[in-house]
Amino acid sequence: MTALRRPPQPMRLENLRASCLRRPVRRSTLPRALFVRSFAAQRSLKAASPSSSTPSSGRKHVTVVNDDGRVRWGALSKTEKVARTTQQTFNLGIVLLGVVMTGAVFALLYTEVFSLDSKTAHFNRATDQIRRDRRCVELLGDSKHIKAYGEPSWSRWARNRIIASSTEKDRWGTEHLRMHFYVEGPKNQGVVNIHMTKKPSQDEYEYKVLAVDVKGHQRIYLENADAKDTGKSSSKFLGVRWW
User: Fold this and answer.
1) Residue 129's Cα: distance from chain center in Å?
2) What pLDDT shows up at residue 177?
3) Range of the domain at 169
4) 210: β partners
5) Which residues pair with 221 in a beta bridge?
6) Any transmembrane segments, and where (predicted)?
């Protein structure tokens, strides 16, 4: 004989309320994930914004001294942009100053050494002319051993001396270059005097006087424009050459 099943009894209201309170409520994680992503996106946009007035976290504050250019311009604050601009302006000024000084050095080297009208060029040409002159070789000695140098100096580098010279312009516009230096050979020593002129219509200097004075001997003239002019004027009278 089968047992009779009891029909299900309806759950009372009190039991249903208690069951709902004991059951854990599962909250959806989707709104929280969306909130986290939105917050992270806002922080990224704020850090990358060029109008940011504060440096990004995790790096050193950029100043004029420690700026190495690694931080992008857009990531700099207003103060850091001023520091970088100041540093780059200073660096540009240093570069321009170096260029100007280099140009001045090259210009000085050209005018004093490499130019045909430089003092060094006149010094070398006069020395070569003295070595080729027979009268100078007789007084000074072998031309291969004749040396020329500037003013006496306390320096041990006795031959690296300054060549005394002066330049002036007269009222007619003629430039006058005067130099003197010393020559020394196996036999004697001498003093060289140079006077060169360049008129406004001329491009290069020409000799007026090139003379060598050796103690105890008569002055040797290698160039003497005054004597040439005197010889030319004495050979004429009233525009007629007499001899």
Assistant:
1) 38
2) 95
3) 146-238
4) 194, 223
5) 211
6) 90-110
Q: Indicate the range of 57-66, 105-114, 228-237 predicted with least confidence.
A: 228-237
CATH of the domain at 194: 3.10.450.320
Complete DSSP assignment for 109-140: HIIIIISTTSHHHHHHHHHHHHHH-HHHHHHH
Half-sphere exposure of residue 76: CA atoms within 13 angstroms, side-chain side: 18
**32 falls within a domain:** no
pLDDT beyond 80 at 157: no
User: Cα separation of 174 and 49, whole Å?
Assistant: 71
Which DSSP symbol is given to 242?
-
Number of domains in the chain: 1
Give the span between the Cα atoms of 217 and 89, in whole angstroms. 66
Q: Are 192 and 148 in contact (CB under 8 A)?
A: yes
Domain presence at residue 129: no
pTM above 0.85, yes or no: no
Distances in whole angstroms, Cα of residue 240 to Cα of each of 225, 229, 231, 243:
22, 16, 14, 9
Q: Is 177 helix (H, G, I), strand (E, B) or coil?
A: strand
Q: How far apart are the first and last CA of the chain?
A: 182
Are β-strands 189-198 and 164-169 bridged in parallel, bridged antiparallel, or unpaired? unpaired
84: part of which helix (H) or strand (E)?
A: helix 78-109
Label residue 142 by pLDDT band (50, 70, 90). very high
Q: Does 29 score more than 90 pLDDT?
A: no
